[in-house]
Amino acid sequence: MSAHAAAAVPHEVGSKKLFMWVWFWLLVLTGIEVLLAYLKLAPHPMLIILVGLSLIKSALIVAYFMHMRFEKLGLFLTIVPALVFCLCMILIFVFPDSLRIVQMHP
Amino acid sequence: MWLFLLSDSLTFSSAILAYAYVRLSSSHWPRPFEFSPAILNATFLTIILLSSSLTMVLAVAAGHRGQVKKAVIYILLTAVGGAAFVILHLMEWFRLFAEGFTPWSNPDGDPLFGGTFFGLTGLHMLHVTIGVIYLCIIAYGFGRRKYNADHVEVSGLYWHFVDLVWMFIFPMVYLMSVKLTP
After folding, report:
1. Does the CB of B40 have a partner CB in chain A at under 8 Å?
2. What ipTM describes this predicted complex?
3. Cβ of B70 under 8 Å from any chain A Cβ?
4. Enclosing domain of residue A92
5. What's the pLDDT tens digit per position in A9-50?
6. What's domain B37-177's architecture?
7. Does B17 have pLDDT greater than 70?
C-alpha cells in the first residue's frame, strides 16, 4: 500500500517504542472502561461515555497501528469523511427514536 | 483493502447502532455478565486482541525492513492470539448456552438480548476466524517469498480493523450488561 515509492526512501511507519506506547494507552483506556461499567450510571450517559472512549481508541488504532498518520492526506480524505457522513445520517434519522420509545413504555 | 474496510465498518456500525437502539429503548435489558468469569474473560480477550495488534504492527515493520523470518514469527504469533480469542470466546458462548441464553430467548429480560449479542459477537468472531486463516496464508507465502512486504501490510490493516471493531463491541455489549449488585 505504502511501499510503492518506498524502495529507495525508507517509509516512516513509527518506532517500536511508539507502538508500545500506543498499546499501553489502549490498555489503560480499556481499564477505565471496565471501571466505568461499575459506576451504575444510567444507560444513556454510560453509552455516550463508552462510545466516546472507544472512538479515541479506534482513532489511536487507525492513526498508529494502521499508520493512517503516515499516509498521504488523500487517503484520509477518501475514507474518513465518507464514513463520518454515513454514520451521521444514520444517527440523525434513526437514533432519536430509541429515546422516544423508552418513554412510551407503560 | 481500505475501501473494503470502509464498507465493512458500515456493516458493523449499522449492526452496532441497531444494538444501541434496542438497548436504549429497552427498560428490561438482561444483565447476565458477572465480574468473574464473564467480564474478566472479556477483558482478557480485549488484551489478547490488542497484543495481537501489537505483534502485527511489529510484523509489518519487520517485513518492510526485509527481516522475513522475524516477520513470519510475528505474523504467526498474531494468528495464535486470534485463535486463542476465538476459542475463549466460544467457551464463553457455551457457558451462556448452559445458563439458558440462546439467540432467541433468555431466562429473564428482553429476548432481543440474545439476538443482538450472538449476532454482533458472531459476526465479529467470523471476522477473527477469517483473519486467522488469512494471516496463516500470508505467513506461509511471505516465508516462501511469494508475497512481499506490502501484502503483509494489507493483511495487517485487516487485522487492526478486527481489533478496532472489538473496541466497540466490548464496552457496548459487555460493559452495558454487567451484573450489578443492588
Report:
1. no
2. 0.87
3. no
4. 73-106
5. 445 567 889 999 999 999 999 999 999 988 888 888 888 899
6. Up-down Bundle (1.20)
7. yes
